[in-house]
Amino acid sequence: MQTRYVDLIQQSFDFPQEEFNLDGSHLEFHGIPLMNIIEEYGSPLKFTYLPKIGENIAMAKNWFSKAMKKHRYKGKYFYCYCTKSSHFQYVLDTALKHDIHIETSSAFDMDIVESLKKSGKVDDKTFVICNGFKRDQYIANIARLINGGHKNCIPIIDNYEELNLLSESIQGTLNVGIRIASEEEPKFEFYTSRLGIGYKNIVAFYKKQIQDNPQVNLKMLHFFINTGIRDTAYYWNEMSKCMSVYVELKKICPTLDSLNIGGGFPIKNSLAFNFDYEYMADEIINQIKEDCDEAEIDPPHIFTEFGSFTVGESGGAIYKVLYQKQQNDKEKWNMINSSFITTLPDAWAISKKFILLPINRWNEEYERVLLGGLTCDSDDYYNSEQHVNAIFLPKYRKDRVLYIGFFNTGAYQESIGGYGGIQHCLIPSPKHILIDRDANGDITTKLFREEQSSNQMLNILGYDVK
User: Do 281 and 408 fall within a single domain?
Assistant: First the structure.
């Protein structure tokens, strides 16, 4: 009977996979021996594998390029990174090396853009697409960028008042987009997105506030689906309604020339994950071209906004199993040396699943367990994997330490968890390691931040500590 952990994985999935391999009984991630990282830096820790960011950007560009060539699509393709997925400098620096553009969500995002411009990593050719609900500071920061000469900054109108607020602050011609308030999936608690302007109201809004306004050019229609780009009847139905609006607008608005497709591609959250990215890119381009050909209008330039897809698969978190608690006949709790609420807030807040694998001891027997964090909160746990609705790990042994890793955690976790701030039960944010490759392809590592200290937290809380 095969009872080793490696046997379980090989029986359940195609393994090894592109990013996961074994060196004996130790896991490698993109060829990185993770036990070496643990031996050098300890645990808990978070890491970011920077080359994966560029790899995903290149793949998406290739999928859309092939689709446009296949369908003789005349428009251009622009890859945008959604900064809200991860605002860290090392992420933006890495992504911008691959000829991309930026999508922002709030006022402080614009300060990041200006910092990147000063350092030469962003120039006036870089499109800055400004999404989100805009009020005083965000409006002022957008105006400062445009008035400073950045004409490729396109604010996306989210509500009826924003256009006037922008017009009053910006000198000269203003290029804008309009966001469609798409209908949500039937399982949602509400019918229509709170963001954007309804399908039926967009043309009327254009005629009333933009068509005869010499200061404003409508350049872009922004289409966003909260669930992301997926091959579902719901997605294609919303896309069809979007194209109906685009066609109607284009016939009366000669300056309209771009379609912004938000929502993004999904990322791998299981060893059984299967998504045909190339097919989706091809079908999107095909459907847009067919609609435009039928209406006898030029097809739009395509902008995509990929946040999680850009950065999500670059990240990981590693923990040590400290102790096992047998709470009843069936439930064994493996306690980790950190907190899921602190380090993986998506896992407990919205039940998001990540790829979970042991780092060592793959050739030993496995058992079914639950995973608990250090806090006193009953929600601080991670208890199921999508493929079997349970967690199986090598058996706990007090004399043989077990390390576990969560993978593809690079998007949102730090910002949702309040990086550098007060953490639940004052469990500190772990140290963060940046992993890269040099010109020869050899692995390099760098400590980005040490584990959060008690003094850092106490100072935030107002205690007089040094």
Answer: no
Q: Of the given ranges (51-65, 113-127, 177-191, 330-344), which has the lowest mean pLDDT?
A: 177-191
Residues 77 and 102 in one domain: yes
Give the CATH number for residue 400: 2.40.37.10
Q: What is the pLDDT of residue 216?
A: 96
pLDDT in the model for residue 189: 58
Do 109 and 154 lie in a common domain? yes
- List the beta strands (DSSP E) in 10-146: 20-23, 26-29, 32-33, 45-49, 77-82, 101-104, 128-130
Question: Which CATH number belongs to the domain containing residue 157 in this structure?
Answer: 3.20.20.10
Note down the domain range covering 382: 5-50+315-460
pLDDT(432) > 80: yes
Residue indicated by tokens 């896991």: 27
CA distance 415 to 88: 10
Look at residue 65 and tell me if it is in a domain. Answer: no
Looking at residue 188, its pLDDT comes to: 53
Please list, in sequence order, all residues whose beta carbon lies within 8 angstroms of the beta carbon of residue 112, skipping any fewer than 6 positions away.
Answer: 83, 87, 92, 104
Q: Is 394 in contact with 365 (CB distance < 8 Å)?
A: yes
Q: Kindly tell me if the per-residue pLDDT of 275 is higher than 80.
A: yes
**465 found inside a domain:** no
What gap in Å lies between CA 82 and CA 366, rounded to an integer? Answer: 40
User: Final residue of a domain: which of 281, 306, 331?
Assistant: 306
Give CA–CA dist 223/206, Å, rounded. 16
Average of per-residue pLDDT across 4-21: 95
pLDDT (tens digit per residue) in 351-406? 788 999 999 999 999 999 999 999 988 889 897 665 556 899 999 999 999 999 99
CA distance 250 to 456: 54
Give dist(CA 112, CA 157) in Å, integer.
21
Q: Could you tell me if 173 and 218 are in contact, meaning their C-beta atoms sit under 8 angstroms apart? A: no
Q: What is the per-residue pLDDT for 347?
A: 84
Q: Positive or negative CA dihedral for 333, 338, 342, 344?
A: negative
Domain end, chosen from 267, 288, 306, is at: 306
Give the count of beta carbons closer than 10 Å to the beta carbon of residue 324: 17
| Strand ranges in 203-314 using DSSP code E only, listed in sequence order | 216-223, 258-261, 301-306
pTM of the entire predicted model: 0.94
User: What average pLDDT does the segment 409-431 reach?
Assistant: 91
Q: Which residue has the tokens 């030993």?
A: 364
Nearest to residue 304, comparing CAs of 120, 96, 80? Answer: 80
Which residue in the block uniquely carries the two structure tokens 């993986």? 344
Provide the mean pLDDT of the chain.
Answer: 93
